[in-house]
Amino acid sequence: MRHLISHAGPLIMLSAGLFFSVGAVTSLDLGSFRRMGPGAFPLLVGGLLCLLALIGLVQNLRHPLPVDHADPVAVLGVTGGVVGFALLTPLLGVLPATFIAVLTTAAVIPGFRWPMRLALAAGVAVGVWLIFVLCLGIPFTAIKGI
To answer: What's the confidence (pLDDT) of residue 43?
Structure first.
């Protein structure tokens, strides 16, 4: 039973990756390599998530990790960051939603001081803007109303 519990994380990641990949293929336009459609990014992220989950499962099958007790605060922080990003992106835009999601997730890291949390959240938001909006030209609403 303990070995099955150690596979829960990679299996959840695999499920999420498959969910996003199948959703992108079945309901969004993928476009082409030169003009990516709105489904290209979720398909790419879902595929990478599946790949990472499979690597984790294989490593875990070869050398099972010891199972520690779950930290409910960390689980809530990460879940809150993901759910917050999903809910806030249409309301505020991708950059404020990214900032808030990273800040929420970083808040549960012990010993991580607030100035570093703010710097990390700002750096990730700027990185998202540089990579996805500026370089790739994905039509995200960077900041709603601007």
So the answer is: 85
Q: Is 53 exposed, middle or buried (0-12, 13-18, 19+ CB in 10 A)?
A: buried
Rounded to an integer, what distance in angstroms lies between the CA atom of residue 119 and that of residue 123?
A: 6
What is the per-residue pLDDT across 49-70, written as a single tens digit (0 to 9) for each?
Answer: 889 889 988 888 887 766 666 6
* Domain ranges within the chain, ordered by starting residue: 1-68, 71-146
One-letter amino acid for residue 118 of the chain? L
By CB atoms closer than 10 A (0-12, 13-18, 19+), residue 117 is middle
88 Cβ contact list (under 8 Å, min separation 6):
96, 97, 100, 101
**What are the pLDDT digits (tens) for 74-133?**
888 888 888 888 899 889 999 999 999 999 988 888 888 999 999 999 999 999 888 888
Burial class for 102, CB neighbours closer than 10 Å (0-12, 13-18, 19+):
buried
Q: Is the pLDDT at 71 greater than 70, yes or no? A: yes
Distance CA 20, CA 49 (A): 9
Pure H helices in 1-146: 2-6, 8-27, 40-62, 72-92, 94-106, 114-128
> In 10 A of CB 90, how many CB atoms?
11
